[in-house]
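Project outcomes to date are best conveyed with an example. Our students and postdoctoral researchers have been running inverse folding experiments weekly, and each run begins with a structure described purely in tokens. The record below, which covers 400 residues, was selected by the lab manager from last quarter's runs and is presented without edits.
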């Protein structure tokens, strides 16, 4: 029998039996993976950053099947939310809204779903009745403004749910620097905080410190802030970045966190949206095979990310080409546009050929601690068991 770990996070999410959270990874953590993690006692997020409303609906339906929800109507009849989360990129919402950021002052003339692609995505997300929404990557106006719109729209679409009780919509907000903390706690009213260190795979701020350092900085500053969430309580803190297994979770709990957010580890599962070739490459990779770079966003043309944001992935030929071209373009600025076009065409060809030597494979530094592809439920169980074992071992060092 898998042990149960109880923390402030699991008390906030009664459906969970372990503080293991699946990160909201765009184009990687779809409905099958999110649902499998939630069904196993963790908490899964669908990474909807680049989804259309139609794609999001399909992925939510996959998650429903995993967690035993018949459909949206059955949730409405029970006046319940689904035990899963959905992650949104705030800068992407602004982009979908033709670059218009929600106002912070005065009345917000919230656009309708018929006139705003961003609100169409938000509406689809909220109609799914998720237990939580994950917001990240945006400036203060975007994070606070979109938070207000999401909470307001949730009240309109789900009037039967108690927004201050057990069926409230929980807001997870990720921070990568101490400077972002006040916005998350006081501006957004975060119910859960995620501190992401620079070891994390995928996107993050290039100036983020290591995970242990940002956890310490956040814990030092939190007592000086005034939470504005519905409960009026300080949000529990989760750690993200470079996690590999149960010892990582035990370490976070020992540092005062309420749980851990795992990304790369869940990419090595049948339910993840990565290809088999990508998963097999991750299983062979070592921690020093990863690198922070803008090479992949450059090659894919996904350059709308906020200033200072780059991504950590497996170092490959796409990175090598990018770095070589950057050196050349310093000397020959007129070659820049030509280089971008060439790199994008090369990446497009690699995508059509499933060439893993060039495709983006996001990965955190913890990849060296994982070498098996296994079902998501088994990953959740293994992390939990190993965390309990590590905690018990550490406790044996204490002499009364």
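After processing, the design step wrote out the following sequence:
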């Amino acid at each position: 029998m898998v042990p149960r770990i109880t923390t402030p996070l699991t008390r906030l999410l009664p459906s969970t039996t372990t503080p293991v959270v699946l990160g909201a990874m765009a184009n990687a953590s779809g409905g099958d993976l999110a649902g499998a993690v939630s069904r196993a006692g963790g908490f899964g997020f669908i990474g909807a950053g680049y989804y259309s409303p139609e794609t999001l609906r399909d992925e939510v339906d996959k998650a429903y099947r995993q967690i035993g929800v018949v459909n949206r109507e059955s949730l409405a009849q029970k006046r319940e939310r689904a035990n899963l989360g959905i992650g949104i990129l705030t800068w992407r919402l602004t982009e979908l809204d033709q670059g218009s950021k929600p106002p912070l002052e005065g009345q917000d003339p919230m656009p309708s779903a018929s006139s705003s692609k961003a609100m169409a995505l938000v509406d689809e997300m909220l109609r799914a009745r998720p237990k939580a929404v994950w917001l990240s990557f945006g400036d203060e106006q975007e994070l606070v403004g979109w938070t207000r719109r999401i909470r307001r729209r949730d009240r309109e679409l789900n009037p039967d749910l108690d927004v201050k009780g057990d069926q409230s919509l929980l807001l997870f907000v990720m921070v990568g620097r101490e400077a972002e903390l006040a916005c998350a706690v006081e501006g957004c009213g975060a119910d859960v905080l995620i501190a992401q260190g620079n070891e994390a795979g995928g996107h993050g701020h290039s100036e983020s410190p290591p995970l242990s350092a940002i956890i310490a900085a956040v814990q030092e500053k939190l007592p000086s802030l005034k939470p504005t969430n519905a409960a009026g309580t300080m949000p529990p803190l989760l750690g993200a970045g470079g996690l590999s297994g149960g010892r990582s979770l035990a370490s976070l709990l020992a540092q005062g966190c309420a749980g851990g957010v795992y990304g790369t580890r869940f990419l090595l599962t049948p339910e993840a949206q990565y290809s088999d070739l990508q998963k097999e490459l991750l299983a062979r990779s070592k921690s020093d095979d990863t690198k922070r770079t803008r090479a992949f966003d450059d090659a894919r043309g996904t350059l709308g990310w906020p200033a200072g944001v780059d991504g950590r992935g497996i170092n490959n030929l796409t990175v090598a080409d990018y770095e070589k071209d950057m050196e050349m373009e310093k000397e020959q600025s007129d070659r820049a546009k030509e280089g971008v076009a060439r790199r994008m065409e090369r990446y497009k060809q690699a995508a059509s050929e499933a060439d893993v030597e060039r495709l983006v494979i996001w990965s955190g530094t913890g990849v060296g601690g994982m070498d098996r592809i296994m079902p998501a439920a088994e990953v959740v169980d293994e992390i939990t068991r190993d965390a309990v074992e590590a905690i018990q071992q550490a406790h044996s060092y204490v002499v009364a």
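The mean pLDDT is 93. Residues 286-362 form one domain. The training component of this project remains on track.
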